[in-house]
Design goal:
This protein is mostly beta strands. The protein has one domain: Jelly Rolls. The chain is built from no helices and ten strands. The strands form two sheets. The protein has a five-stranded mixed beta sheet, with no helix packed on it. Strands 2-3-10-5-8 form a five-stranded antiparallel beta sheet, with no helix packed on it. A hairpin with a 3-residue loop joins strand 2 and strand 3.
Length: about 100
């Protein structure tokens, strides 16, 4: 996989209870290894394909705009955009 690190994280809100960020993942790029300290929900703005790599496993995921992708607290995962278009997400962490 020839993905390059190029994800852009933009803070939208942060307080003692939750954090909201925007993730912009360019075509064929990776967000790198992410450790989700809290329950995390990603809301895709556009459809596409992701490769989720975690604990020696790889899973291709079809991304549908408006359909949530959830990560449990303590999860480590690399998020790779396997499409030729930019993907955008609103990422919400419940602390």
């Amino acid at each position: 996989m020839g993905a390059t690190t190029g994800a852009i994280w933009k803070a939208q809100g942060d307080n003692p209870y939750y954090r909201i960020r925007e993730l912009v993942l360019p075509a064929s790029a990776t967000a790198g290894l992410q450790r989700f300290e809290f329950k995390t929900t990603s809301l895709p703005h556009t459809p596409g394909q992701l490769l989720l790599k975690r604990e020696g496993q790889e899973r291709h995921t079809e991304v549908t705009a408006g359909r949530l992708i959830e990560f449990e607290s303590g999860t480590e995962s690399e998020i790779v955009n396997t499409t030729n278009q930019e993907l955008r997400f609103t990422v919400m962490e419940i602390k």
